[in-house]
């Protein structure tokens, strides 16, 4: 790629600062950014909590003309470096960026919902058995209730709970990759 033509590059940032660096970089003339992020629920001590994380932790994409903007991009706040190989900046093909955008449904933040399926390993998020894991045995009432096979006190038991009170063991990135 020529230094006087715009191209996409990978920007390495400080941890958990991708979206901040991308937002600040958008203010630079001639610079376009793309920082794909996912929104998902995770079980915590407080119950289910929504999280937003970068699809590529500590990285995002920026399109710019190196001759005009490389210095400003490299020294932008929260940026560690522009990813290079052997000191040579390597551009990312437009087709790769478009593929990621398609996967993200052309959104910067895509919500990842964990659909439950028979055989999935899940964790209870509420009640006296919070934190215990089991296997989905069956789904009832259009995903509103599920029966879970659990090992409890040395024997297997089948319990029925609201599907909103369980989280699958699969990570949001695994769910996104499988969709």
TrEMBL record:
It comes from the Bacteria. One of its GO terms (biological process) is transcription antitermination. Pfam families: KOW (PF00467), NusG (PF02357). The keyword DNA-binding does not apply. This is Transcriptional antiterminator RfaH. InterPro entries: KOW (IPR005824), NGN-like_dom (IPR006645), NGN_dom_sf (IPR036735), NusG-like (IPR043425), Translation_prot_SH3-like_sf (IPR008991). Residues 5-104 form the NusG-like N-terminal domain. The keyword Electron transport does not apply. Transmembrane segments: none annotated. Keywords: Transcription, Transcription antitermination, Transcription regulation.
